[in-house]
């Protein structure tokens, strides 16, 4: 056989696939950076849709990225970021995802100093909706924090970053020591086997506290100082918060995980039900919209064929 007849090497094939895939996009500007690499805003030529392209270098923590891809492919919820396509080269992986223009919840809290209860309630209900959807499907996030929650320009929530997420079975206890130490549950600090759902609830309690106070509940200059504050349950709840809101926070930040409520229980709390009189029932409540279904279908078919 001539050189032209020989099959391409795997590396060459991957590079050709990479270039063919990226002909579909205009890469615009960097919109985020982190330990994983960076995120670029891009434009999908066929559908004229803006997307976010997350670039990850293949390294010793590639298992986290593979885990995130595996989980996101199974999720379809308006409050969870949508994964459109995965492009792989020898050295890098690119995740083409839904673009959310409003930025991180953390920045919204910082800009406002703290959120009023009405606004916090609306955002938190959407976060709960996303987490409940995951728990109902045997998935826990394990890294819930304001940095991993995005808002669009209309205030709709998108939960992101499932790299530490995992699947679980009812009754199964997890042992991985993970998650931001500022949002870490007592049982994780103690390295005890834990229920991932209850760990998510603790983290949600920290997120809600941050939203309505503008600060973390458990503070310290070192990890050990934060750990001590968590294990001693040492935090203050400002008096300007309503009794109902204080009660929600206290319930979620219950030290004993067996006494800590589930997401299902929190969803029904009176503070979260305020303002629902005369509105659609939870079963038919209007949720934030997905990207235009016609565009998504076109996008999916096009990326699969090419």
TrEMBL record:
Its EC number is 2.7.11.1. GO terms for biological process: intracellular signal transduction. GO terms for molecular function: ATP binding; protein serine/threonine kinase activity. Keywords: ATP-binding, Kinase, Nucleotide-binding, Serine/threonine-protein kinase, Transferase. It catalyses: L-seryl-[protein] + ATP = O-phospho-L-seryl-[protein] + ADP + H(+); L-threonyl-[protein] + ATP = O-phospho-L-threonyl-[protein] + ADP + H(+). Residues 25-272 form the Protein kinase domain. Gene3D superfamilies: Transferase(Phosphotransferase) domain 1. One of its GO terms (cellular component) is cytoplasm. ATP binds at residue 54. InterPro entries: Kinase-like_dom_sf, Prot_kinase_dom, Protein_kinase_ATP_BS, Ser-Thr/Tyr_kinase_cat_dom, Ser/Thr_kinase_AS. SUPFAM superfamilies: Protein kinase-like (PK-like). Pfam families: Pkinase. It is an enzyme of class 2 (transferase). Belongs to the protein kinase superfamily. CAMK Ser/Thr protein kinase family. Smok subfamily. PANTHER family: MAP/MICROTUBULE AFFINITY-REGULATING KINASE, SPERM MOTILITY KINASE 3A. May play a role in sperm motility, especially in the regulation of flagellar function. This is non-specific serine/threonine protein kinase.
